[in-house]
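Researcher: We're teaching a course module on how sequence relates to structure. For the next exercise, students receive a sequence and then see the predicted structure as tokens, so they can try to spot secondary structure elements on their own. Here is the exercise chain.
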Amino acid sequence: MIKGLRFALGLIIILAVISMVLPVVYSQEEEAELITPAEEELMTISGEIVSVDLEKSNIVIKYIDDYTTGSLKELTISVNAATNIEREYTALAISDLKAQDAVLVEYAVDANGNNIAKNILVGIATEIEPATEPEAAIETTTQTATEAATGATTGATIK
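Model: And here is the predicted structure for the students to work with:
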């Protein structure tokens, strides 16, 4: 019976020690997760390339800053080996970029305040043409109220 009490007392002591140690271990893991840096916050900008500097590996993009006033600004974005550049699912290099290319850029700001491109999607810029009238003649008929009621037409037809 004394062996049974010693065993039970030993088991209780072991469980008590474990219950005190486990919360400390888990709280240290949670604290480590809080300290690790979060994913980079990516920003997106769309606009037109103004210039490409191959020596500095950066591009300057002109974009609309305020849609109500239409004011434009320029932003310099660095391109590195990790930057994905694509046009219609085809990989490109920075040397393939040209002034006046329409682009959509996802970028992050590094600790030094530099804008670093993560993804650049190059679009094909097309000119917007004004709407035109169809070439076929437009017929209009004028009717008086009496003609409209009776279905008769004596008004002029213009072609």
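Model: If you want an answer key for the exercise: The beta strands are 43-53, 58-66, 71-78, 84-87, 90-91, 102-109, 115-123, 140-141, 157-158. The chain has two domains: 1-36, 43-123.
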